[in-house]
Design a protein that fits this description.
heterodimer; A: 500 residues; alpha+beta; five-stranded antiparallel beta sheet; 13% strand; elongated; B: 353 residues; alpha/beta; GMP Synthetase, Chain A, domain 3; 2 domains; nine-stranded mixed beta sheet; four-stranded mixed beta sheet; 11 helices; Ger(X)C family spore germination protein (chain B); membrane (chain B); palmitate (chain B); Spore_GerAC_C_sf (chain B)
């Protein structure tokens, strides 16, 4: 190694050149503006510096310059008095200039006073309007979703929880992106251990860029090598507000329309915000259907492969004829047949997700009808398997949380492989691995498989099923909320149906 | 590291697992055994071939060899694809085999974990090969015969039987086994013609005809839906939906006496005669009970003479006696007094306007 460096010696040279350049003439971005003015009344020369692309020109023209030029502006201390802007800071620290400049402040310097600088807030926030939730759509219930601006998102939550206990801690994360990240919790409900863990993990992040809350999710996950998401993410303020009241912690990231929720458990990923809007019987049945669909989606193709390859005895005698005749012309073993179809479905999903909506629909039709029918007619796949794979794909779409849906989507491939290698034994083997992994997994240090393990009967009331609200007396036990009781059923007023 | 080695071993060892891809094997559905010369047996296997139009073709292959295992391996050599026997549903023994080697042949079926214990053992009147060579139903012969047995066990007079129960009855001291007997009527039809009774060595010694099958089932099994005709002074009633239970007890010791309490419930479905009054119904109940008592007692006498015990009297006596001595029981059994007491209840007699 040393040999090369001696000969070429290029790297140090490059560094020198770079540092020389920056030292002598600091590069200036094109949108960095500086201009000088003169207040004739007080005979004061002053200059302002700002970044034109993040500053609201309207504010400068209407709310700053007229006042500075016409009012009694004698010293830098006067700025606070004469400007109709609240956020005006007068500092002596020169080092702050750059930070403030790039956060949308105007930097005001007075020529007679070299020591002080004034920072005047003039940030232009471009906010898109609130829109409908696109990932977690619901038929009934609130139709607003988070947007990219963090202040707006906090506002949405504040409106839903107008209590002084709703705490917000702010962090700036990312050495380059300087992303504002807010940690939210309800002070007297949330367990401080959860809050502290989350705060520590947020502070420990050392990364250059945070583009979305998913970055935070991956950087703070308990097990970074797990396919399962360990924080629930939601774009619905109602869901975020709901879990805050349960005693959980919510993380909002500037620039991301998704909030992170922790601690969470596996079953929570299969609950939809709509579950709380239906009556408890409907909601419970829907949840059970969803959980069944997930198991079905993971296991059905591997089962098909295992049974057709090894366990012909398990096929009911009335089904044998159907299965055999559907496979008679197919030249591939069941595993190849299954892999071809599964990959086709994955391709279709990927293509559908990447393409613009209008073309995406066409892809759905092309995939569903053309490829499906054609492959059966060409004798590449059996129609029984086609139905199973389509059903499995359909069932995997049922997961309300997109990230969990993706985890499940790819979980079936190792199952398929093991089904081919060892039959049903292989599927059991694979299940054992997955279950062991889930048992070890935690979310913010709380068990992921709760209430199955550790068994918490009390928490079953809002997991596989959802009991009625008057049964939800306690908050989920794995959150370990400070205030465990949600309400006291004895204090409830008796219902009077008829005034007597 | 160990984990990865284990995983790797899983991958390479899996090559040793036998694959049997469903459309690349011949699935053996039924097998029949007949007598052949030189102490050999003639084995006939029934394969189901599924055609693309949805029909099932019966293919039989026959070979003569010494054991059932040899027969299969010889047939493998004659077949273009592996014959797998895991979903075997039916084993037919000809009467001649049933009188001689049934237990020896069935041993292979009992030992093999691949086989389900709910498959049927049956005895055929005449050659088993002939029965298998028929063309019954649309879904294959084995399915046809096993379905026929299924529904006759559920709703008819055939007492419950399968491999598991057969082995249990045969090996349990104080019990002997029984198997249904089928007969080929013509190329398209079969009939369950009798129940064959086996002695303690597993040899066919007696047959219970269709007429007495009802009473046999009352003794050895429980009813969940049968029908029987009862005649009383020229009137005739068909009793349907018969449910029955029996209880075998030692009623007296020294000398041993046993009692069988049979409880029968049913509905009168059809009645020919004068008006059916409550009194008449009670008379019918009594008559039916009497008939059952007579016929079952007759059957038990027959069992005692032959030294067989399909009802499991000995087994029941053992359960109710401390230090039960089977040697003593064998002597006592022939002259044992058995009381049959039947309690018939007619639940309803239909709606008459």
């Amino acid at each position: 190694m040393g040999f090369f460096f001696k000969k070429g010696n290029k790297q140090p040279k490059l560094k020198e050149q770079y540092s020389e350049e920056t030292d002598t003439a600091p590069a200036k971005s094109k949108d960095e503006k500086e201009s000088s003015y003169y207040n004739s009344e007080t005979n004061l020369h002053f200059s302002i510096r700002y970044i034109s692309t993040i500053v609201d020109q309207d504010i400068i023209q209407k709310n700053i310059l007229p006042y500075l030029l016409d009012k009694q502006f004698a010293s830098i201390a006067d700025v606070k008095k004469i400007l109709p802007i609240e956020d005006v800071q007068i500092e002596t620290n020169e080092a702050l200039i750059e930070e403030k400049l790039f956060n949308g402040y105007l930097v005001l310097k007075v020529h007679t006073d070299k020591q002080h600088v004034a920072f005047i807030a003039a940030k232009e926030v471009i906010v898109r309007s609130l829109s409908m939730p696109e990932v977690e759509t619901s038929v009934i219930g609130p139709k607003e979703a988070f947007i990219e601006a963090i202040d707006q998102n906090i506002n949405l939550l504040r409106i839903r929880l107008p209590v002084k206990e709703l705490m917000i801690e702010e962090f700036t994360i990312g050495s380059v992106s300087k992303t504002r990240t807010a940690l939210m919790y309800i002070d007297d409900i949330a367990n401080m251990e959860n809050v502290n863990t989350m705060r520590q993990r947020l502070q420990a992040i050392d990364f250059d860029q945070i583009n979305d809350s998913s970055y935070i999710e991956q950087l703070t996950a308990d097990n970074k090598n797990s396919p399962f998401p360990q924080f629930l993410d939601t774009e619905r303020p109602d869901r975020a507000a709901g879990v805050l009241v349960e005693g959980k912690v919510v993380v909002l990231v500037d620039g991301s329309p998704h909030a992170l929720i922790g601690p969470t458990n596996l079953v929570e990923f299969f609950s939809s915000p709509e579950d709380y809007l239906f009556n408890w019987i409907t909601a419970s049945i829907l949840r059970l259907i969803r959980l069944f669909a997930v198991v079905f989606s993971i296991l059905i193709t591997p089962m098909y492969v295992a049974v057709l390859t090894y366990h012909y005895e398990l096929i009911p005698k009335d089904l044998t004829a159907t299965l055999i005749t559907s496979r008679q012309v197919i030249p591939f073993p069941p595993i190849l047949e299954a892999l071809i179809l599964e990959l086709t479905i994955e391709l279709l999903r990927e293509a559908g997700a990447r393409l613009p909506t209008k073309i995406g629909q066409t892809i759905g039709i092309v995939g569903g009808i053309v490829i499906g029918t054609a492959s059966v007619e060409a004798g590449l796949t059996s129609n029984v398997l086609l139905i199973l794979v389509a059903l499995a794909a359909l069932a995997s779409f049922i997961t309300p949380v997109y990230k969990m849906g993706n985890a499940i989507r790819f979980l079936r491939f190792p199952f398929l492989l093991f089904a081919q290698l060892l039959g049903l034994l292989g599927i059991v083997f694979c299940l054992l691995i997955v279950i062991t992994h889930l048992l070890r997994l935690t979310s913010l240090g709380r068990p992921y498989l709760e209430p199955i393990y550790p068994p918490r009967w009390r928490d079953l009331k809002d997991s596989f099923i959802r009991l009625s609200f008057d049964k939800q007396i306690r908050r989920p036990s794995y959150v370990q909320a400070q205030k465990e009781i949600r309400f006291n059923p004895k204090h409830q007023k008796r219902r009077h149906d008829i005034e007597e | 590291m160990k984990k990865y080695i284990l995983l790797f071993l899983c991958l390479i060892l899996s090559g040793c697992v036998n694959k049997s891809i469903i459309d690349e094997v011949d699935i053996e559905r039924g097998v029949g055994y007949d007598e052949a010369s030189d102490n050999k047996i003639r084995g006939t296997i029934l394969l189901s071939k599924y055609n693309e139009d949805g029909t099932t073709e019966n293919v039989t292959m026959t070979v003569v060899d010494e054991t059932s295992v040899n027969i299969l391996s010889r047939l493998q050599r004659q077949s273009d694809s592996t014959i797998v026997y895991g979903s075997l549903k039916l084993v037919i023994f000809s009467e001649a085999i049933a009188k001689k080697d049934l237990i020896e042949i069935s041993d292979a079926f009992v030992r093999d974990a691949r086989l389900g214990s709910r498959m049927y053992f049956v005895i055929s009147e005449g050659s088993a090969q002939k029965v298998l060579k028929g063309e019954y139903g649309d879904h294959g012969n084995a399915t046809f015969i096993s379905d026929a047995l299924d529904h006759n066990i559920k709703h008819g007079d055939v007492p419950k039987t399968n491999l598991h129960l057969f082995v249990y009855d045969y090996t349990q001291k104080g019990r002997t086994a029984y198997l249904p007997i089928i007969k080929k009527l013509n190329q398209q039809r079969i009939d369950i013609s009798a129940i064959g009774l086996l002695d303690r060595q597993g040899h066919l010694v007696d047959k219970v005809s269709v007429k007495d099958m009802f009473y046999l089932k009352l003794l050895v099994d429980k009813y969940s839906g049968g029908s029987q005709v009862v005649k009383l002074d020229g009137d005739r009633a068909t009793i349907r939906s018969i449910h029955s239970k029996n209880k075998i007890k030692i009623s007296k010791r020294n000398p041993l006496e046993m009692s069988i309490n049979i409880k029968v419930e049913g509905i009168i479905q059809e009645y020919r005669g004068k008006k059916l009054t409550q009194k008449k119904i009670e008379q019918f109940e009594k008559k039916f009970a009497e008939e059952i008592n007579q016929n079952t007692t007759k059957l038990i006498k027959r069992f005692q003479q032959l030294g067989i015990d399909p009802a499991g009297l000995g087994h029941n006596a053992k359960q109710q006696t401390r230090n039960f001595d089977f040697k003593k029981w064998d002597d006592e059994y022939k002259d044992l007094t058995v009381h049959v007491k039947t309690d018939v209840t007619i639940l309803e007699s239909g709606v008459v306007q």
